Amino acid sequence: EQLVHIANASHLMSQMLLKGEKVAFSEPDASQMTKEEIIVQLEEKLSATAEIIASLTEDELKEKIKTFDGNEIPRQQVIIFIHDHLTNHRAKANLYVRMNDITPPKYKYY
Q1: Cβ-count burial of 67 within 10 angstroms (0-12 exposed, 13-18 middle, 19+ buried)?
Q2: Which residues does 64 contact at the CB level (< 8 Å), separation at least 6?
Q3: What gap in Å lies between CA 99 and CA 72, rounded to an integer?
Q4: Measured distance CA(71)–CA(89) in Å, rounded
Q5: How many helices (H) and strands (E) does the chain have?
Q6: Which pLDDT score, from 0 to 100, does residue 110 have?
Q7: Which of 16, 19, 53, 84 is the most exposed place for a label (fewest CB within 10 A)?
């Protein structure tokens, strides 16, 4: 569930907050997905998120946008928020696997 949420929320936030698109939140039921389907979704959604980030100009990164709660922040700060959100849920996933006596994958920098 954490990995499916990471994939979908990262892409949704990049679409809404970085590109200004109107999209509805939709997340598949992870319990109905295979491991392979989850991996494919992670690869597709995080690649699409990375493409959106890479497409932004310096001026767009500095431009202020309204967040979900109405605050105004520069788009570059949204990228930090997306990363922080992903890290939070990755930590939850690591905790879950450790509690089930599974060693999580080693951390690696991109």
Answers
A1: middle
A2: 72, 73, 74, 75
A3: 39
A4: 23
A5: 4, 2
A6: 62
A7: 84
